[in-house]
Design brief:
The chain has 290 residues and is an alpha/beta fold. The protein has helices spanning 46-54, 93-104, 110-123, 139-152, 169-185, 197-203, 232-235, 239-258; strands at 4-13, 20-30, 35-39, 61-66, 69-70, 78-81, 157-161, 189-194, 206-209, 222-223. The protein has two domains: 1-77 and 155-290, 3-Layer(aba) Sandwich (Rossmann fold), CATH 3.40.50; 88-154, no CATH class. The radius of gyration is 19 Å and the shape is globular. The chain binds adenosine-5'-triphosphate (ATP) and magnesium ion.
């Protein structure tokens, strides 16, 4: 039985008569401890899909299930890292994480709670900034706090909505490695939204492309059959890695070509330039995984 499941899920927004269906007949089955990356264009419905999995939104039709049970609302079993990292501005880094930890582990003693929070603050490299408030942090640091807060809750399922998108390439690469290390050490079910093909191939067991909306749906999965543990430097030399990036990018671009012009404004393109390997020039991916 799949651990996390969307069955024929459709969801739209807007008043009656002017309703736009964002997601149509979406089906997804995620196995326990599987790492799935969902990739798609901006505005296609990725955050909507994550909100459905989190239970923050209910489908118009269809069902969301976790471990066989119907998802009816949010739960600490499904930790979400929001795209806009939503931290409480009046609490410090430590305080933001501590608040979540005390909700999920109310029986911790003060010392246990402190040690637990410090472990996750250190995991994302923010020990030096533990006493700062979000207003005193850079965007990337805030995103790391948000990631640490969700990891510290030790949810069964991690729902990551473009958790690294606001970071510069180097910090992003570091955190990808960190995420890979954490996941390999402490496997759990992950659904990660990304618009970065490299990131998806580096991290995931399977890439699931989301077609262009309105009425977006998930296309057939692309398995990432590259053995683990993965090393970004070695990956760059693997023909299988290049092929996966190429195939994924081509598929995403084909969604835009298939789209009739009259169907509304085109969503903005994620940072995926067209693939061209024939000349030996590297155009895909978004950047070299250095
Ligand atoms: N609560 C809402 N009310 C009305 N429309 C909404 C709501 N939430 C999302 N939408 C619309 O649904 C569509 C998909 O939005 P969503 O945020 O899921 O896209 P996305 O793929 O996450 O985009 P991005 O990559 O830019 O984050 C958009 O057209 C958006 O305007
Ligand atoms: Mg989004």
């Amino acid at each position: 039985m799949p651990f996390l499941q969307l069955q024929n899920v459709s969801l739209g927004f807007g008043p009656h008569g002017r309703r736009t269906e964002v997601l149509r007949e979406v089906n997804l089955s995620v196995k326990e401890n599987e790492f799935v990356a969902i990739i798609g264009f901006s505005g296609s419905g990725k955050s909507t899909l994550i909100n459905l999995l989190a239970g923050l939104q209910n489908p118009d039709t269809g069902e969301v299930r976790m471990d066989g049970a119907l998802v009816r609302g949010p739960s600490p079993e499904r930790g979400i890292v929001f795209q806009n990292y939503s931290l409480l501005p009046w609490l410090t880094v430590h305080g933001n994480i501590e608040l979540a930890v005390s909700r999920v582990f109310p029986k911790f003693s003060r010392a246990e709670r402190r040690a637990h929070v410090e472990r996750y603050v250190s995991m994302v490299g923010l020990s030096h900034a533990a006493d700062r408030r979000p207003g005193q942090l850079s965007g990337g640091m805030r995103q790391r706090v948000s990631l640490a807060r969700t990891l510290a809750m030790q949810p069964k399922v991690l729902l990551l909505d473009e958790p690294l998108s606001a970071l510069d390439a180097l910090t992003r690469a570091n955190l990808q490695d960190e995420l890979l290390r954490i996941w390999e050490h402490d496997r759990r079910t992950v659904v990660m939204i990304t618009n970065d093909v490299d990131e998806a191939v580096l991290l995931a067991d399977r890439i699931v492309p989301l077609t262009v909306g309105p009425g977006a749906t998930l296309a057939e999965s692309i398995p990432v059959d590259i053995p683990r543990p993965r090393n970004r430097t070695e990956l760059n030399h693997l023909p299988a890695f290049r092929k996966l990036k190429h195939d994924t990018t081509e598929l995403l671009l084909s969604f835009k070509k298939d789209r009739p012009r009259s169907s509304g404004p085109a969503p903005s393109m994620p940072a995926i330039p067209p693939a061209d390997f024939s000349s030996g020039r590297r155009i895909v991916p978004t950047r070299e995984v250095a």
